[in-house]
Amino acid sequence: MEEDFLVKTPSGLYCKYGNFYIDAILPVENVLITHAHGDHARPHNQNIYCTTPTKNIMELRFKKNAGKIFNEIKYHQEFKMGEVLISFLPAGHILGSAMIKMTFNSSIYLFTGDYKLQEDATCESIEFCKADVLITETTFANPDTKHPNPSDEIEKLNKIESNILLGVYGLGKAQRITQLINKICPQKNIQLHYSIYPIHQLYENKGYHLGNYQHYDRKLMKTSKTNQVYLVPPLTFNAYHKAIGVVKIFASGWDNLQKGNDEKLYISDHVDWDDIIETIKKVSPKKVWTIHGDGKHLKSYFSNNLEVKIL
């Protein structure tokens, strides 16, 4: 195992043994992209390696600036960059999200990207592999953080007859919420912000049927006083902070995004503490490296029997 297999640079995490970056922050020559969220997939890179859905979403969002050359990688397909053998595994985060399995000098490194263990009918289920080094995101790596069952959270909406202004992230969360509402609250009519609708259509084209939804209808929201659910991205949600006649809710795992709303809806597309511990058990790594969050709790928890390094 090489301690410098992945190093932080101004452009992002870099592997010199394969001459590639992972989820580069700045435009680079070679980049592996785990999924299409904007903090991981950025425009203007030269050679991009990602799943086909990630490519499709990037092209939808960035148009001609998405990147120069896309190398579409199927799950489990092996390819080599420099001295590193690489393959993608489903991460369970959003449509097309991938964990990256990398083999170098007989050691296996598993880079999770963003991932979740909870069931989600709108993306591929997570798949694990054994690895010598697990490089895990730690967004919610706190023993006090426990994500509730998403179905139980959505059930709360059945107790609300008034129209709902529901803040969601447009990619992944919006599609998951739409599918869950259709399943658990079939009496609700889902209306979509104009920026979210095309992503729903992309999901449908990939074979993920989300149920009923429509474009936002301002007249319908005003004349129908009950059971309308308007899904909007964060900026729009914040702009409507003085809106009347609607129940304001934001779907997130973050406590701070629940404050000031009319109801709390804890639905996250990331692993919580118990999920990370379960992942470590399944992967059985000799070392754990942490990114995207705070790894201090994991470092303390495993201080006697597993090396944890915060990248």
From TrEMBL:
Keyword Transport: no
TM spans (from-to): none
Pfam families the record matches: Lactamase_B_2
Domain Metallo-beta-lactamase, chain residue ranges per copy: 26-162
Keyword annotations: Exonuclease, Hydrolase, Nuclease
Keyword check for Cell division: no
Single GO MF descriptor: RNA endonuclease activity
Protein name: Exonuclease
Protein species of origin: Pedobacter psychrophilus
